[in-house]
Each structure stands twice: as structure tokens, then as C-alpha cells.
Design brief:
Largest sheet: 3 strands, mixed
Distance between the termini: 28 Å
Number of strands: 14
Length: 191
């Protein structure tokens, strides 16, 4: 999904909720209520779900770049283990702003505080990253990099196989009957 489409879809969602007499978005508060819709979408971290022939349904940022999770991180408790040079190649998705996600359960979205004090987005407890070599919507150059970086499914699971293993927006992923496709880029280490 391109940034324009993602922004339009999320803006339409916010407007439709407002037009219906509600100022609510799908994001929930700790007591189970719904959070108020932000008036300024520039203060929102946009997330969307896109489909590709390579990995099927996966989470993207507002620019259409895929989000990845790192096998060396932990979800419970959420902890990022990608620091220094690793964090230059694998950019932590900042969580300074409220997330607005189309296609991702708001209950799965959270944050973790990194060692430098910044907040990083998590999905199902897993810290999220973008890959420096992904430049345009649809790029998946980080998929299976080093055998430890994988695109994130809408339910937070890692996508280890192709579309056949992840063919539903909210389905589970896991076992890989075939090896993941080799990465064609060797510029950034897998860490």
C-alpha cells in the first residue's frame, strides 16, 4: 500500500468516525474504552497492512515500507537487542506519537523504552524496525536477512515463508515447509 493510500485510508477512518458523531478511533484505552481521534494526523504513527507476492500480508509504515522483527529481541518482556551499528541498518520504529493502524489489532500495539530512552513501537510485544535498504513501498530487501530478520505479520508473528504460509491478514504464521528466499543484498550485516 502506498503512503497516499495509507494516509487516505486512515484519514477516511478518522473522518468516518467523526462524521458518525463519534470522536473515537479503534485504539483502546487501558480500561477498554476507545481513544479520541487525533485532530492532527502529523502527530500519528501510521501503520497499514499490505500484501506482496514474496511474503503475503505484512505490516508497513505510513510510507509503505515493511516493518521487521528481530529474532534476538524478546516480546515478554519487550526488549530491543539492536543497538549501535545494528540500529543504523535496522531503524527502530519510533513510538513518540500515537499509532493509527489499519488492519492491525490495536490491542497488539505497544511500546518499549530503548536503552537510549527513546520509545520504540512493538507489535505483540516484538520491537519493530524498518530496513535502511528498503527505499520504496513494496521493497522487502530485509526479509530473512541473516536468518534473524523477518517481515511482521498483522498479528505480530514473523513471516518465515512465502505467501502460502501467510495468506490471511489475521491468520497465524510459523512453520516453514520450504526455506525462505535468499536475500540478494549483502551490504548490511544480519546482526
Amino acid at each position: 500500500m502506498r503512503r497516499g493510500q495509507a494516509v487516505a485510508a486512515l484519514a477516511a477512518l478518522a473522518l468516518s468516525l467523526t462524521a458518525c458523531g463519534s470522536s473515537q478511533t479503534p485504539a483502546t484505552t487501558p480500561d477498554g474504552g476507545l481513544k479520541a481521534a487525533p485532530a492532527d494526523l502529523s502527530k500519528v504513527t501510521l501503520l497499514a497492512v499490505a500484501e506482496s507476492a514474496q511474503v503475503g500480508w505484512h505490516v508497513t509504515d505510513g510510507d509503505g515500507l515493511p516493518l521487521y522483527r528481530y529474532d534476538k529481541d524478546t516480546p515478554k518482556p519487550a526488549k530491543s537487542n539492536c543497538e549501535g551499528e545494528c540500529a543504523k541498518a535496522w531503524k527502530p520504529v519510533k513510538a513518540d506519537n500515537d499509532p493509527m493502524a489499519a488492519g492491525v489489532d490495536p490491542g497488539l500495539i505497544g511500546t518499549v523504552t530503548r536503552s537510549d530512552g527513546t520509545k520504540q513501537l512493538t507489535i505483540a510485544g516484538w520491537p519493530q524496525y524498518t530496513f535502511a535498504e528498503d527505499e520504496t513501498a513494496g521493497d522487502l530487501k530485509g526479509q530473512a536477512k541473516g536468518g534473524v530478520w523477518f517481515a511482521t505479520a498483522p498479528n505480530g508473528a514473523k513471516i518465515t515463508g512465502g505467501k502460502a504460509q501467510n495468506n490471511a491478514k489475521t491468520g497465524t504464521t510459523g512453520a516453514t515447509p520450504t526455506a525462505p528466499p535468499p536475500s540478494s543484498s549483502a551490504a548490511a550485516p544480519g546482526y
